[in-house]
Design a protein that fits this description.
about 625 residues, alpha/beta, five-stranded mixed β-sheet, 24 strands, about 15% strand
Length: about 625
C-alpha cells in the first residue's frame, strides 16, 4: 500500500478505502461498537462529520456547524508539521512531573537515599557534560508515554507510524465517534497497536467511561509513565479540556503514595511494640447510629454550630489535627483517630490537650501516642507491611493518604449513615489550608501553583493537588467497597462521588452513647497471632526480586521494559504477598525511577556498561534492606 502522503498527494481514493476496510476488519474482532460506526461512515450515515476528498481539496467538514476543521489547502501541510520530530516540536509539549536529577537527604531514608545519591554521583561524574545539563536523550524514533487529544483525521499519526516511530505507551482521546471513524481512512490501527508496547495503547472515544481505566493506564507502568510525558492537543473543545484535566490529575496522582522501606520499618517496629499491650479491633458490626468523621479542612469552622447542636445524636470521630479545634469549641469527641508513624505525633496531641479522650490508632503509630490516654485501642491499618504479618487479622483498608481517610473507612465499618465534616480534599478559594485554630496556626489563603481546579460542593472555587486527589479517590473507592446507605458531606470542599451534599441535616433524638460505645468496644480483643515463616518468606521474595533485577540491559528501550517488568512484579507481590511486596516496593520504585532519569542523560543508546552499574547499586541496596529487616524482626 502507498504511504499516506502518497495517497493524499495522488488523491488515491482506493488506498484510503482499503485502509478503512482493513480497519473495519480489525475492529470487527476487537470492538463491535467502533466497527458499526465505520460501517455507518462507509454508508454515508455519518451526520456529524464528512470527509471532503477531491482533486481541489482534502478536509473534514463539520456538518452541524457547517465549517471546515482545517484551513483550506492546509490538510497535508498541517499533518506533516505535527509529525515532524515530536520531541523537539513546539506543537507538542513535554512534561517531566517535576522530577529531575537530585540527591536526597539521608536523615530518614538512610538506606534508600544512599543508593540514590550514589546513582546521582555516578551520573555527574561519568555521564553529564555539565552539572547544569538538563537534556534527556531518548533513542531515535522512540517516544515516551504519549497523550493525544483529538486526532482530527490522524494523518500525522500515520506519518509517524510509517516513519517507524514507536510509543512506549499511548493514550488517545477523540471526543466524537463519527470523527474517529474518519481517522480510519488514514490511520492503520492494527499497525498502531503493534508499534506501542504490549497492552499500552488506550483509545477513549466520546468519554472516559471509568476513571479506573485512566488510573490503570498510569499505574500499570507506574515508573515509566510517571516521568516523561509527551502531549499533543490537536483539537480544542470544552470536553477535551475536561478530559485533559482528568489525565493530568491521574498523571500527578500516580507520583504519590509510593512509600519507602524505611517508613515501613518504622511501622513494623511500632507494631511489634504496640500489639501485645493494647486491645485490637478484631471484628466490626453495624451500629444503628450516625457517625460524623471530622477533619481539619477549612470548612470545619463553618460547621461548629451543627456539631455542637448534634454532638449527642451521633458518634464523633475526630481525625488528626481536628482535635485541637473541637476541644477549643467544647465539642465532645468520642474517638480520636490517628494513623501516622511519625515520632513527634505525641507532642502534637499534647499541644491539642488530648486529656482522657479515647484514642483509636493504627497499629503503626508510635507507642508514645498510645500512652497519652488511658483509653486506647488499635485497628490494623491496610496498605502497610506490618498489617499483613498476622493470621486472620481484621484489616481496615483505604486508610491513606490522610487520617481522614482512615476515619471514613472505620465509620463505614460501623455505620450506614456517615457525615463528612472538614474532609475537604482540596484548597478552598480565600480560605487557609486548615480550619482556624488548628495545630498549624495562622496560614495564608494562597492557592499553590501546582494545584488544579475541581468540582466543589458549593459555589466557591475549589482546587486540588495530587495528594488531595489521592485522598478523594480513596474515599470514593471505599464508598463502592463498603456501600454505606447514605453519606452526607456538609463541607465546601471538593465534591466526592457517592456523597450527598447537604447543609440541613436534622437528627431527631439523642443516642445512648454509653450503650453504643460498649457495643463498639466489644469488637476489640487482645487476640492476635503472627504468621509463620515471616523471615523465610522475605528471603524467598528478595531472592526472586534479585534474579529479576540482575539482568543485562543493552538499550534504553530495554531499560523501559526492564523497569516495567520489575514494577509489575512488585505490584503483584504487594497484592498477593503484601507483607513482602509492600515492604520493598516503594524503595525499589524510587531506585528504578532515579536509574531511568540518570541513564536518559546518556547521549548514546548503548547503555550496557552504565546500566550494569546502576543495577549493581540496586542489588546491593536490596541486600542492605534485607539485613535491616532481619535485624529488627529477630531482635
Amino acid at each position: 500500500m502507498p504511504s499516506i502522503l502518497e495517497s493524499l498527494q495522488n488523491r488515491d481514493e482506493k488506498a484510503l478505502l482499503q485502509r478503512m476496510l482493513d480497519n473495519l476488519a480489525f475492529f470487527e474482532v476487537h470492538n463491535k461498537h467502533i466497527a458499526k460506526a465505520l460501517k455507518d461512515t462507509l454508508e454515508g450515515k455519518n451526520k456529524q462529520y464528512q470527509l471532503l476528498f477531491n482533486k481541489d481539496e482534502i478536509n473534514i467538514i463539520d456538518l452541524v456547524n457547517n465549517k471546515y476543521l482545517y484551513p483550506k489547502d492546509s490538510f497535508i501541510n498541517i499533518a506533516y508539521s505535527i509529525a515532524l520530530n515530536p520531541l523537539n516540536n513546539k506543537i507538542w509539549k513535554v512534561y517531566a512531573n517535576n522530577l529531575s536529577l537530585a540527591k536526597i537527604d539521608t536523615k530518614n531514608l538512610y538506606i534508600t537515599s544512599n543508593a540514590i545519591n550514589e546513582m546521582v554521583d555516578f551520573t555527574y561524574d561519568n555521564i553529564l557534560d555539565s552539572k547544569l545539563s538538563n537534556l534527556y536523550h531518548l533513542p531515535s524514533l522512540f517516544l515516551p508515554q504519549t497523550n493525544i487529544f483529538g486526532l482530527c483525521g490522524g494523518v500525522f499519526l500515520q506519518i509517524l507510524l510509517e516513519n517507524d516511530f514507536t510509543f512506549h505507551s499511548l493514550l488517545i482521546f477523540e471526543e466524537d465517534l463519527a470523527l474517529f471513524s474518519l481517522s480510519c481512512y488514514f490511520v492503520d490501527f492494527k499497525r498502531l497497536f503493534s508499534q506501542v508496547s504490549n497492552k499500552s495503547c488506550y483509545i477513549f472515544i466520546e468519554n472516559i467511561v471509568s476513571k479506573a481505566f485512566l488510573n490503570h493506564y498510569f499505574y500499570s507502568k507506574k515508573v515509566t509513565n510517571n516521568f516523561l510525558r509527551l502531549e499533543l492537543n490537536a483539537f480544542i473543545s470544552p470536553k477535551i479540556s475536561a478530559i485533559k484535566d482528568m489525565v493530568n490529575e491521574a498523571y500527578k496522582v500516580n507520583s504519590r503514595g509510593w512509600g519507602s522501606f524505611e517508613d515501613e520499618m518504622i511501622g513494623v517496629k511500632n507494631t511489634l511494640q504496640n500489639i501485645h499491650s493494647n486491645k485490637i479491633l478484631h471484628k466490626t458490626t453495624k451500629l444503628n447510629i450516625p457517625i460524623c468523621v471530622i477533619g481539619s479542612g477549612p470548612s470545619l469552622e463553618s460547621n461548629i454550630d451543627f456539631l455542637r447542636n448534634n454532638q449527642n445524636k451521633m458518634l464523633i470521630f475526630s481525625c488528626g489535627t481536628a482535635l485541637k479545634i473541637l476541644k477549643q469549641h467544647n465539642i465532645n469527641i468520642d474517638f480520636q483517630i490517628e494513623i501516622e508513624r511519625i515520632d513527634y505525633l505525641s507532642s502534637v496531641l499534647e499541644d491539642s490537650s488530648i486529656g482522657d479522650t479515647s484514642l483509636l490508632c493504627a497499629n503503626v503509630v508510635n507507642n508514645k501516642v498510645l500512652n497519652l490516654s488511658p483509653n486506647r485501642y488499635i485497628f490494623i491499618r491496610g496498605g502497610t507491611t506490618s498489617s499483613y504479618m498476622f493470621k486472620d487479622a481484621n484489616i481496615i483498608e483505604f486508610c491513606a493518604p490522610f487520617v481522614g481517610n482512615a476515619g471514613f473507612s472505620l465509620a463505614c465499618n460501623f455505620s450506614d449513615t456517615i457525615i463528612l465534616c472538614g474532609i475537604d480534599c482540596g484548597y478552598i478559594k480565600d480560605k487557609p489550608k486548615h480550619s482556624k485554630g488548628s495545630f498549624y496556626g495562622d496560614e495564608n489563603s494562597e492557592i499553590p501553583p501546582y494545584s488544579f481546579k475541581v468540582k466543589g460542593n458549593s459555589n466557591v472555587d475549589v482546587y486540588s493537588s495530587s495528594i488531595f486527589s489521592l485522598s478523594r479517590e480513596s474515599i470514593e473507592i471505599a464508598i463502592k467497597h463498603y456501600k454505606p446507605k447514605i453519606i452526607y458531606n456538609i463541607g465546601d470542599g471538593a465534591y466526592i462521588q457517592g456523597t450527598k451534599v447537604s447543609k440541613n441535616i436534622i437528627f431527631e433524638k439523642d443516642i445512648n452513647k454509653d450503650s453504643i460505645k460498649n457495643e463498639f468496644l466489644k469488637c476489640f480483643s487482645n487476640d492476635v497471632v503472627f504468621k509463620d515463616n515471616l523471615n523465610s518468606d522475605i528471603m524467598v521474595f528478595v531472592d526472586e526480586l534479585k534474579r529479576n533485577i540482575c539482568v543485562d540491559i543493552a538499550t534504553k528501550q530495554e531499560l523501559f521494559t526492564f523497569i516495567d517488568n520489575i514494577t509489575a512484579f512488585l505490584a503483584k507481590s504487594s497484592s498477593t504477598r503484601p507483607h513482602c511486596g509492600i515492604l520493598f516496593e516503594g524503595t525499589i520504585l524510587h531506585l528504578l525511577q532515579n536509574m531511568m532519569i540518570c541513564i536518559l542523560y546518556a547521549k548514546t543508546n548503548d547503555i550496557a556498561d552504565i546500566a550494569r552499574f546502576y543495577v549493581d547499586i540496586i542489588a546491593k541496596c536490596l541486600d542492605k534492606l534485607l539485613s535491616e529487616y532481619q535485624s529488627n524482626l529477630l531482635s
